[in-house]
Write a structure and sequence with these properties.
The chain is mainly α. Helix content is 60%, strand content 5%. A four-stranded antiparallel β-sheet has the order 2-1-3-4. Strand 3 and strand 4 form a beta hairpin. The chain is rod-shaped and about 165 Å long. The relative contact order is 0.06.
């Protein structure tokens, strides 16, 4: 026989119920686990949770309690409803706070590009005006245009990357400013490179005469050496030898005067390396007198009553510098103190 269940609800006793009916009561939410149940006709009661057969059915899915429907939401006027839609579309909450909105991934790059380009544009104006207005006391600031040009180009690149990541605002502004700053910096840098530095006018004035003397001495030496090497039978050979030797010594003295004049300028090295041309001239002279008269260069110089001290000094300095045994600063100091 199937068990019959009595349910003690308060002071009342309900039932008997079959197993199926008990499960329906449980499924409907009317009977809980702590209700008093009896299967022996009311002789004894125990909690419903102790009767395992009541809870073994897969049909016992919890049923949510019945909630009576509340009042319908108020119907807003068309104007109010439209305003609410606009607020939601703009990303603002109905309480006046800014709604969460994703930040573009390139926003930081755009800001960095804008700042870098702006700094480059503003500061590049300074060396440009100094150079255009020829303000001597500010010439030290003109070379700053090179790092500023780098900053401008960097800002331009960062802005382009930010725009590619759909970041507007600062990225667009940085692109425009970066183009202007890069163009301005490029013009200033090129102008600094191709135009003559006004500070070098005094350097050119100091060395101009000495350089002209060197050029004249080279031209006279080459002409005398050619005459000595190609002399006609009717020419005075001893006179040709003496003439080319004197021109060699004149060339040597012209180089020494040039180096002494350039020793007080920052372009000493540019003039000192010209000693190589004098060294080549001496080599040609030595080969010529050895071939034509079977004598060495020092004897040829001695026969005209001169001493090769200056020539030897310049050639020794050039050889020491060329082999790395003497720095250009040491050579310059020697001529500055002479």
């Amino acid at each position: 026989m199937c068990a019959q269940y009595l349910w003690k609800k308060g002071e009342r006793t309900l039932g008997p119920f079959s197993l199926t009916e008990m499960r329906k009561l449980i499924r409907g939410g009317n009977l809980g686990r702590f209700q008093q149940i009896s299967t022996d006709g009311g002789a004894s009661y125990a909690q419903a949770a102790t009767f395992a057969e009541l809870w073994e059915s897969t049909e016992l899915v919890p049923v949510p309690p019945h909630v009576p429907p509340g009042p319908p939401p108020p119907v807003l006027p068309p104007s109010v409803a439209t305003g609410a839609s606009v607020i939601e579309a703009s990303g603002l909450s109905t309480e006046g706070t800014v709604g969460s909105r994703p930040i573009p991934s390139g926003w930081g790059l755009g800001l960095a590009g804008f700042i870098s380009a702006t700094v480059g544009l503003v500061l590049t104006v300074v060396p440009l005006l100094i150079w255009v207005l020829r303000y001597p006391d500010g010439y030290w600031a003109v070379p700053l245009v090179y790092p500023l040009l780098v900053a401008s180009v960097t800002g331009l690149i960062l802005s382009c990357i930010a725009i590619s990541r759909r970041a507007g605002g600062f990225a667009t502004s940085g692109l425009v400013v970066g183009i202007c700053a890069s163009a301005l910096g490029l013009v200033t840098a090129i102008g600094w490179l191709v135009s003559q530095d006004p500070r070098e006018v005094w350097i050119i004035r100091i060395t101009a005469t000495a350089e002209a003397d060197v050029q004249i001495a080279h031209r006279n030496f080459n002409s005398a050496l050619k005459r000595y090497q190609e002399h006609a039978p009717t020419d005075d050979h001893a006179d040709a030898l003496a003439h080319v030797t004197k021109d060699l010594m004149t060339l040597t003295q012209a180089y020494k005067n040039l180096l002494q004049a350039a020793a007080s300028t920052p372009k000493f090295r540019q003039h000192f390396v010209k000693i190589e041309a004098m060294s080549n001239a001496f080599t040609r002279f030595s080969e010529a007198v050895k071939l034509r008269d079977k004598i060495d260069a020092q004897k040829a110089i001695t026969e005209i009553g001169q001493k090769p001290i200056v020539l030897k000094e310049l050639l020794d300095l050039w050889e020491l510098y060329r082999t790395g045994q003497l720095s250009i600063d040491a050579v310059q100091a020697k001529f500055r103190n002479s």
